[in-house]
Specification:
Helix content is 32%, strand content 23%. With 650 residues, it is of the alpha/beta class. It binds 5'-O-[(S)-butoxy(hydroxy)phosphoryl]adenosine.
Length: 650
């Protein structure tokens, strides 16, 4: 049992291990420790080699890194164009007819887009943007469904040196207003609507609502996708297909400075107005190309890669658009939800395109567990050779389910830890090298320097603490748009000289990293600091449980008491007493929830993260605060109703 004075107590003890299959390791890009040794010997030389080998530069850089804490400049003086790296150079190397994107629309329509096709469309659209007055250094807003035009629009911005700001298509008019105005964007690219669960969801009407309050927008480009009726304001609004039909097909890529702004991406965080996270050109592209190649062991001549994220999130930016295209990958892009027309849609797509590398979120995996193993079993998933996860800690039991039911027991799993702010993957197994443990993101990648520290910034060798980064990395955020003070306060002030990511982590006996969730979520029960993640994983390790969310609610005796919200797997049943005992057996009596509520769904953000703050409000009987970022607000109403009815146990 842990000590009371630990920063975060370590409770779980997962002992299963999985070595890379010999055949996988033999063919993998990385299957020995040379890359780690190289990065440890000379960090700057290591990243310089990646930048030289993976990226094409129009002009070489002078210095690799200028580090004036907390401001980093990478590949200073170097010039390059991101779109040229993602498109032109592949076409020039003879890969013009290679498929870049197998696009699958939700209703079942498809498009096959080669690298030559994509280059053509991007050049035309770059000229369209110029004709609408967009110049190098301007900002362009993108509010689109998951259609190829989203990637085209991003790359067209990059081609002419305008920064994009993508707003997830599920966000409201108000979110769009805040983000457009903060960035002072000149042009908005949207669509009439997109498909979601068999129906057209309108986008242009939401955009119109926003446009009444966005004085900087001069022009709106509208892609026709949903076919729904939309109003077009003369002089301001233009159809994409009409502009493209007239556009000049040739547009030379701008020479961009390595430190020029590539994009802004807004993250809401827990409080206050959204932060415009700034990512620049040369370092970002190097980081995402390096991680996409090595973490996913991409072999571009034979892999079919599929990342199920939306382009509206950083995962879509780094691992649908920039990383895979810089590496010349062939990928699947899917417009819709995983349960339309049936709960097996993803597995049907894997079989149809022969997907070899599949990257998704733990929240999706837990949903698949709820739907049952029969769904993937309907399809031939034997093309898969590597699986990945991102977004939250993956509970060991969800990892095992993924391993068996999707990976057929043969695919390594890369649990990748990173953030909007880090730009690219930071902690992950290397699939041909690392022995994995279910639920652990394992080790920092070569070139990334992590330290877990206690409240006094002292390194923790063993046990729980705060996850910090001690050295700059090329994909790191360069600031918060328009708010340098907030940049320093948010990321660089908790621990002197270190970037603090907001996450807790634990180091086990073998030095493996276990992410413990946001430190704001850590509970304090009778002086023990317990991570919600570990109790959730203990609950999910019961065979009847698909998903669990745990929060600490104020308690007169213990300071905080553990409240758990549990969703069962399809067709399963279990009682509260059994689950409480199960947690006690798995990780100890101290972690036994005081109350357990069963619920068909948990409140989640639109990107699938559990909103523990709301569950805390429910547990403490408070009125709910801001629920606007919830994917489905009815879930908490139902929980409140049940909380009022259910007595808690001691
Ligand atoms: C936060 C960042 C990075 C793309 C998607 C999310 C959590 C992310 C993991 C993981 C445990 C993870 C962290 C992080 N997170 N990946 N593999 N294991 N936690 O981007 O919205 O910026 O969220 O997601 O808490 O800080 P984001």
């Amino acid at each position: 049992m842990s000590e009371h004075n630990d920063t975060i107590d370590a409770l779980s003890n997962e002992s299963r291990t999985f070595a890379p299959p010999a055949t996988f390791a033999a063919a993998a890009h990385i299957n020995d420790g040379a890359l780690h040794a190289e990065a440890e010997a000379d960090l700057e030389a290591f990243w310089a080699r990646q930048a030289r080998e993976l990226i094409t530069w129009q002009q070489p850089w002078g210095s690799v890194l200028e580090w004036d804490l907390p401001y980093a400049r990478w590949f200073v003086g170097g010039k390059l164009n991101v779109a040229e790296n993602c498109l032109d150079r592949h076409v020039a190397a003879g890969f013009g007819s290679k498929v870049a994107i197998h696009w699958e629309g939700e209703p079942g329509d498809t498009r096959t887009i080669t690298y030559a096709d994509l280059l053509d469309e991007v050049q035309r659209f770059a000229n369209v943007l110029r004709s609408l007055g967009v110049a190098k250094g301007d900002r362009v807003n993108i509010y689109l469904p998951m259609i190829p035009e989203a990637a085209v629009a991003m790359l067209a911005c990059a081609r002419i040196g305008a920064a994009h700001s993508v707003v997830f298509g599920g966000f409201s008019a108000q979110s769009l207003i805040d983000r457009i105005n903060d960035a002072e964007a000149k042009v908005l690219i949207t669509a009439d609507g997109g498909y979601r669960r068999g129906e057209v969801f309108p986008l242009k009407p939401a955009a119109d609502e926003a446009l009444a309050h966005t004085p900087t927008i001069d022009h709106v480009v509208v892609v026709r996708r949903g076919g729904n009726d939309v109003a077009m304001t003369k002089g301001r609004d233009h159809w994409y297909h009409e502009l493209m039909a007239e556009a000049d097909p040739v547009c030379a890529p701008e020479a961009m400075d390595a430190e020029d702004l590539l994009f802004l991406l807004y993250t809401s965080g827990t409080t206050g107005k959204p932060k415009g996270i700034m990512h620049t050109t040369g370092g970002y592209l190097t980081h995402v190309a390096y991680t996409h190649r090595n973490v996913f062991d991409l072999h571009r001549d034979r892999d079919v890669y599929w990342c199920t994220a939306d382009v509206g999130w950083i995962t879509g930016h780094s691992y649908i658009v920039y990383g895979p295209l810089a590496n010349g990958a062939t990928q699947v892009m899917y417009e819709g939800v995983p349960n339309y027309p049936g709960n097996d849609r993803f597995w049907e797509i894997v079989a149809k395109y022969g997907v070899t590398i599949f990257y998704t979120a733990p929240t999706a995996i837990r949903t698949f567990m709820k739907w049952g193993a029969d769904e993937p079993a309907k399809h031939d998933l034997s093309s898969l050779r590597l699986l990945g996860t991102v977004g939250e800690p993956i509970n060991p039991e969800a990892w095992m389910w993924y391993h068996h039911n999707i990976g057929g027991g043969r695919c390594p799993i890369v649990d990748t830890w990173w953030q909007t702010e880090t730009g690219g993957i930071m902690i992950s197994p290397l699939p041909g090298l690392t022995v994995t443990k279910p639920g652990s993101a394992t080790f920092a990648l070569p070139g990334v320097n992590i330290e877990v520290v206690d409240d006094n910034a002292q390194p923790v060798e063993h046990g729980g603490g705060y996850l910090t980064l001690t050295r700059p990395w090329p994909g790191m955020l360069r600031g918060i748009w328009g708010d340098p003070e907030r940049f320093v306060d948010t990321y660089w002030s908790r621990f002197q000289g270190r970037y603090f990511a907001g996450d807790g982590a634990r180091l086990d006996d073998d030095g493996y990293l276990w992410l413990l969730g946001r430190v704001d979520d850590v509970m304090n029960v009778s002086g023990h600091r317990i991570s919600t993640t570990e109790v959730e994983s203990a609950l999910v390790s019961h065979p009847a449980v698909a998903e669990a969310a745990v929060v600490g609610a104020n308690d007169a005796t213990t300071g905080q008491a553990i409240f758990a919200y549990v969703t069962l797997r399809g067709g399963q049943d279990v009682d509260v007493a059994t689950l409480r005992d199960h947690v006690a057996t798995e990780i100890g009596a101290i972690a036994k929830p005081k109350a357990i509520f069963f619920t068909p769904d948990l409140p989640k953000t639109r990107s699938g993260k559990i909103m523990r703050r709301l569950l805390r409000d429910v547990a403490e009987g408070r009125n709910l605060g801001d629920t606007t970022t919830l994917a489905d607000a009815s879930v908490v109403d139902e929980l409140q109703r049940r909380a009022a009815e259910t007595p808690s146990e001691d």
